[in-house]
Amino acid sequence: MAATCNDAIAVGDDSTASHSNSLVMSFSKKRLALHEVDFFAQNNKKKSQHDHDHDHDAQTVHCIELNEDITGRNRSIKKYGDERNELAAMLAELHDMNAENHRLRELVDQVNNDYNALHMQLIKLMKTQHSHGGDQAIEKGKKEGMIDLMESNTVQALEPTKDNSSKARIIEEKPGEQAFQGWLSNKVPRLNSFMDHVDQASETMSIIKKARVSVRTRSESSMIADGCQWRKYGQKMAKGNPCPRAYYRCTMCTGCPVQRCGEDKSVLINTYEGQHNHPLPPTAMAMASTTSAAASMLLSGSMPSADGLINPSILQSAAFSSSHNNMATLSASAPFPTITLDLTQQSATNSSSQLQKDQLSLLAPLLSEKFMSDPSLTDTVNAATAAITADPNFTSALVAAITSIIGTSHPNNNNGNYNTSGDQQCNNS
DNA sequence: CGGATTTGACCTGCGC
DNA sequence: GCGCAGGTCAAATCCG
Known about the structure:
Domain WRKY: 219-281
Strand content: 5-15%
Subcellular location: Nucleus
GO molecular function: DNA-binding transcription factor activity; sequence-specific DNA binding
CATH superfamily of the domain at 209-300 and 323-343: WRKY domain
Pfam families: WRKY
Protein name: Putative transcription factor WRKY family
Shape: elongated
């Protein structure tokens, strides 16, 4: 705008020559003035533009900041969107896993059903086999009351089974256990299954409670003073025995299930069932440990091992001691398995200490072998195990303990006021 | 008087 | 289903 104004003034000044200098001067002044105006105008313009530029920069910075903010928000939105998608994917995966879990569960149920069906068939088959192979031994045991396992071995050797090869192989590898297997198949057929360990354990525990250990001693008293306090709660006339059978219960602790009864004349037979469920005095520990150990040995021979088979050495050893010394005999007669420890010879021949040692030295390996291999034994049995492992002369100590218990309690029985001692049974019900 | 023992009744499992 | 034998209970009795 300033340049247009200057050009119009210059055209008018050229038509007047006489006043040229003054006009020039005036024009120059005006022109200077205009220049000054223009200068200020330009300065103002620059200033204005500068100010405008300054505001524009501020707005630009603000816009940049807003833009960055928007960009950040967009990033957050995008991030949230990604997380949402990821969560949705995880939910979908979880849903798939639930569905697969459901399918697997149905599959497991199906497998369990199949297993149960096969298990029942197996039990049925094994019972059928035992009805062929074990009947003779059982009948023999029932007739004689006691089964001498050496005789059982002979029976098996002379009369091999006619069943399938699997059964025949087991019998060949496990001579001596057929009587117990037969008894087990008759009483607790489920023990024949080595696959159902849980049921096996419960069954075993129930059998342990019913296992009997019969200790034969010579005593004029109606019961053995073995350190425990016994309370008589009943007496019965047993069939086939002129002497009454007395029933005793341990009174050292309320609820202790150990009981026994007695009958006989000169030979005292204490039959223990179960175990004490309370601490025992030292004098009672020997007998309790002995009976517990014997019961465990008896039951161990009837329990399958981890591989489903049974270690025959225990029963073989028992049979050995039985046939040679009449000390440990195993009875498969109903209702419960019974092991009889015959100490009558020791009591009758107190001077024959070597015989006692020899007899119990045969029993000790039976006990220690089983105890060292079976972790599920009770504390009482473990105590016996500790004694066996700690004392190499345990058998001698055990003989001395038992005989001393019996002997010191009844040092001289010639008082004549008691002549019907007992077949004592220690029942656990 | 309280605890232990006796004894007859009752229950249960098993064989016939 | 019935009878028998073994095992348990509980009231009566005994004893220190």
